[in-house]
Design brief:
single chain; globular; 39 strands; five-stranded antiparallel β-sheet; Rossmann fold
Length: 664
């Protein structure tokens, strides 16, 4: 809550009142994905998206609107004014929906609902199921803690899930018709990212272990949990609390490695035998914020995974050269399928017939913000194909559906779904408005997904093969009926070098024409990411307190073509500063903004930019930098991700001292 208090200070310093007129976008909202237009009288209606104009660069395919996913509310809707403003307390009433998993027959979805508790600062997460026609919903688990990551057994009669109810995060199994859950693992260090084999006989997962607990280095072996526990106990009993680092990447963010490595394990369900498939002093995968990139082949004989296995022990700190490997589930030497690419390769997934394997790739060594593309290898011939080479944006999470691939991508402030026809490379849009947070696909093309917008928390939806979309959850219905969660409107503002800077604007609770309001501008971190039409608490609390909130996507943002993303490299304090100042100048002239009460905030890299603004000309009366960097040479000396500053700033502090000093 400390950070929340810092943020609220911005609002406290900027709240005021005066004059305003209705928001008028300068150009139509993002044609490829907005599916909303503003009419002459300021009203907003759903319509098929128009052609891409020269003002909105990109060759991304046009996405048709789905009416149920479009928020067309007006900023001065009388119904919203009657609702309560958003407060921190109201945010803790928002339930989160996640982890959609379609059953093998495509008729039922498992998913999670997380309920936060303001008093404890924790959330209770349980697993639910719902039929795709929406007629039957049932809560499956009731543990006071976290039950998450549901996975169907191939026969559809039971499901696996992760739970922290006993002995750390472990794997459990439960009948889908109800009953007591069964604990399947007793892994001392816990586990993550499980996947089930096609026959349901094995489960693979990731666990961070001491390599010496896995037997002889370099060979598959029976994992020894007793040895792992012995090592943990010995370290806990030691009077020494210092750590000796023999090589780089000794820490990931705020967690020390302490000699542990992320290994791939396979559990044989019939016998309980646990095998370490990737023993030795390697991480597999090195790091992930989502799924860990494990995949069984359709015949269950092979497992694909990602790992950095360069001989140099410091390699992963200075390079992002992760590769895709395959290894027999029965044991054997892992084989590198992507050794020819010195950039990133990961997130492997087999085609349903097992003849092909696709993965995400970045071709530029050391550049973590390179465009994520898709590649595919023919398992019989070894031929590698670039899939959808003309698609201009990053390809994120993806799923095979017969001879097609469904994926999500950041596109002009949205995260819509797309479908790729593998044979032709043709990409077609599946959804347009808002933000798809997670999704799953059935063999017939049914897609279950969670979806949110700025003014609507995430709910579960299903898209059937005929294209019809149906909401399957309404866990926040009562809350949104009584609390005024504000929608976003959009501007395209002239920025540096004539580029159009896509900016979302949220007008305050109780907005009235003819009244001015304070303004809070939020700069995103990354810096190579994008703000999207997605539900975030801080974009609601400030309007609830009476402020306008704006969140722009300046140079360096994703979703506007890779050249736009790459423009920030070697120019941290240049283009983005000028973009943000241009956005600020434009908004300050709007009739609903009080130009004497403007504030700027940012997290991480956004915090760095706030620090930069603090020592350069600016019109703000309050600045809030959260986790922002002040000194770039010191940043290089303390970050574990050395590839990041060395690429973006052109080298080390001694190789590129001018850049470090210029943007310091």
């Amino acid at each position: 809550m400390k950070n929340a208090n810092v943020i609220l200070l911005v609002v406290a310093l900027t709240l005021a009142a005066c004059d305003s007129t209705p928001y008028q976008p300068e150009i139509p909202p993002c044609p490829p994905c907005a599916a909303v237009r503003s009419t002459a009288d300021g009203k907003r209606t759903a319509e098929p998206a128009g052609a891409v104009t020269a003002q909105v660069p990109s060759a991304t395919p046009v996405a048709l609107p789905v009416a149920s996913l479009v928020d067309t509310r007006e900023p001065d809707d009388p119904a919203d004014a009657k609702r309560a403003p958003v407060t921190l307390e109201a945010l803790y009433e928002v339930k989160s929906v996640g982890f959609p998993r379609l059953s093998p027959d495509g008729l039922t979805v498992l998913y999670t609902i997380s309920t936060p508790d303001l008093k404890t600062g924790k959330s209770d997460t349980d697993i639910w199921k719902v039929s795709i026609d929406g007629t039957s919903t049932r809560q499956m688990t009731r543990f006071e803690g976290a039950d998450f990551w549901p996975l169907w057994a191939p026969d559809g009669r039971s499901f696996f899930f992760l739970s922290a109810r006993k002995g750390g995060v472990q794997l459990w199994r439960m009948p889908v018709d109800g009953g007591d859950p069964e604990r399947l693992t007793h892994v001392e260090s816990g586990l993550e990212s499980p996947v089930v084999s096609p026959a349901g006989t094995h489960v693979a997962f990731i666990s961070e272990v001491y390599p010496e607990a896995g037997g002889d280095s370099g060979r598959q072996s029976d994992y020894d949990p007793a040895r792992q526990k012995e090592i943990e106990a010995g370290r806990a009993a030691s009077p020494h609390r210092a750590m000796v680092a023999d090589h780089l990447f000794y820490r990931r963010w705020n967690a020390w490695k302490e000699g542990r490595r992320r290994h791939v394990f396979v559990l044989e369900l019939g016998t309980g035998k646990l095998t370490d498939l990737t023993p030795g002093d390697f991480d597999s995968p090195a790091f992930t914020l989502g799924e860990a990139g494990l995949a069984f082949s359709p015949d269950g004989r092979e497992l694909a995974f990602e790992s950095n296995r360069e001989v140099d022990p410091d390699a992963h700190a200075v390079r992002n050269n992760t590769d895709v490997f395959v290894v027999p589930v029965s044991g054997g030497e892992p084989r590198n399928l992507t050794a020819s690419n010195a950039g990133f390769d990961g997130s492997p997934a087999y085609s349903p017939d097992g003849t092909r394997l696709a993965w995400r790739t970045q071709p530029t060594p050391g550049y973590e913000a390179d465009r994520f593309a898709l590649r595919m290898i023919d398992r019989a011939t070894g031929a590698v194909t670039d899939l959808a080479p003309g698609f201009p944006e990053w390809i994120e999470e993806f799923r095979w559906v017969r001879d097609r691939i469904v994926f999500v991508a950041p596109v002009k402030g949205r995260f819509p779904l797309f479908e790729l026809e593998v044979a032709s490379g043709k990409v077609s849009p599946v959804s347009g408005a808002g933000h798809v947070r997670a999704f799953d696909c059935a063999a017939d093309g049914t897609i279950a997904f969670t979806h949110s917008t700025t003014g609507r928390p995430a709910e579960l939806h299903v898209r059937q093969p005929d294209g019809k979309v149906r909401p399957l959850s309404a866990v926040n219905r009562e809350l949104v009926e009584k609390v005024d969660f504000r929608p976003a409107r959009e501007l395209w503002i002239d920025g540096d070098d004539g580029a159009k800077i896509h900016t979302f604007v949220v007008l305050p609770h109780g907005y009235r024409k003819g009244k001015k309001y304070p303004l809070v501008i939020n700069v995103h971190g990354g810096p190579q990411m994008q703000w999207s039409d997605n539900f975030r608490g801080d974009w609601q609390v400030y309007p609830g307190a009476g402020a306008v909130v704006a969140f722009p996507n300046p140079h360096g943002s994703t979703g506007y073509g890779q050249p736009f993303t790459a423009a920030i490299s070697r120019g941290w304090g240049g283009k983005v500063y000028r973009d943000v100042m241009a956005v600020t100048d434009h908004l300050s002239k709007q009739d609903y903004v009080d130009a004497s009460r403007m504030a700027l905030m940012g997290w991480s890299w956004g915090g760095y930019l706030v620090n930069w603004v603090a020592v350069h000309p600016h019109p703000f009366v309050a600045l809030a930098s959260m986790m922002g960097v002040w000194d770039l040479p010191s940043f290089h000396g303390t970050t574990e991700e050395l590839w990041f500053p060395e690429w973006d700033l052109g080298g080390t502090p001694w190789e590129a001292p001018e850049a470090y000093e210029k943007f310091n």
